[in-house]
Design brief:
Elements (H helix, E strand, L loop, with lengths): L15 H16 L11 E2 L9 E2 L6 E7 L6 E6 H8 L6 E9 L2 E9 L9 E3 L14 E5 L9 E5 L2 E2 L2 H10 L8 H16 L4 E3 H5 L2 H7 L6 H14 L3 E5 L2 E4 L3
Parallel strand pairs: 3-5
Antiparallel strand pairs: 1-2, 2-3, 4-8, 5-6, 6-9, 7-8, 9-10, 11-13, 12-13
């Protein structure tokens, strides 16, 4: 994988956003494998494809690329709120690539993939509608809240200019691939549990560490009167999927992806 961005074919372009788009899309097409199945290359969609920017011809996974010169913040500006909500709840919603690059030299700094099954309504923030004086008065955009995605859902392919081995990327992806087949409510609970475990500092913990979030979860899921039961169920799911090891007497150990 070559981390240098090819600038030779953008000579003559004046729009910085267009230059960035062309360079980063070219880089992905030349260097990136499919994190879902390991296929060595991805194919570009035609411009203005409504679903994504790239597709794997082997497993048909689709990817949308978002690029930024500076590091990505926890809140990423995106398009129309209603369109985004519709997309993440559709059958063919894409996975997301996030690419952070430098310009002097033109080089990839960080490159992560977030599988589509981590995109639930909770991570999409509705922005205020545009003012009546705006050209698109009333239009309502959205933000993607990266801090609401658990660590296991943010898979580095390039980490601070260090290339992560392909086998490690695919292994990390496969650890949480089961989420794609979960129903929406169950998936939301599993993702919420993964986020809570990120906040438990020690790799080894017991049920009381997880029960400490009961009041917080009750606010989030007001119709559920059995929060502790639900948490135990989710810990069993993560244990069965190889993300946790049960050590007996209510104790667990996190297993690194």
């Amino acid at each position: 994988m070559n981390l240098n961005l090819d600038t030779s074919f953008v000579t003559g372009y004046t729009s910085s956003s267009q230059i960035a788009r062309l360079m980063t899309e070219h880089w992905v097409g030349q260097n990136v494998f499919c994190p879902s199945c390991g296929n060595p290359s991805l194919s570009s969609f035609k411009n203005n494809n409504p679903v994504g920017d790239f597709q794997c011809k082997n497993c048909t996974a689709e990817y949308e690329l978002k690029s930024k010169k500076d590091k990505f913040e926890q809140r990423i500006v995106d398009g129309a709120f209603s369109t985004m909500i519709q997309r993440i709840n559709s059958f063919n919603n894409p996975h997301f690539f996030f690419l952070n690059y430098s310009t002097a030299p033109a080089r990839v700094k960080n490159f992560i993939v977030i599988p589509k099954h981590f995109f639930i309504d909770d991570i999409i923030e509705k922005r205020k509608p545009l003012a009546e004086t705006a050209r698109r008065a009333g239009w309502t955009g959205c933000n993607i809240l990266l801090n609401r995605i658990p660590t296991s859902g943010k898979i580095f392919i390039v980490d601070n200019e260090k290339i992560v081995p392909k086998e490690s990327v695919i292994s990390t992806w496969n650890k949480t691939a089961f989420l794609e087949n979960q129903k929406k409510e169950a998936r939301g609970w599993t993702i919420e549990t993964l986020k809570l475990l990120d906040r438990v500092k020690s790799n080894e913990f017991d049920l009381s560490d997880v029960y400490a979030f009961e009041k917080e979860l009750k606010v989030k899921f007001p119709s559920n009167n059995f929060i502790k039961d639900k948490l135990r169920q989710q810990l069993q799911v993560l244990r069965d999927k190889g993300l946790l090891e049960f050590q007996g007497r209510g104790r667990y150990r996190k297993i690194s992806c």
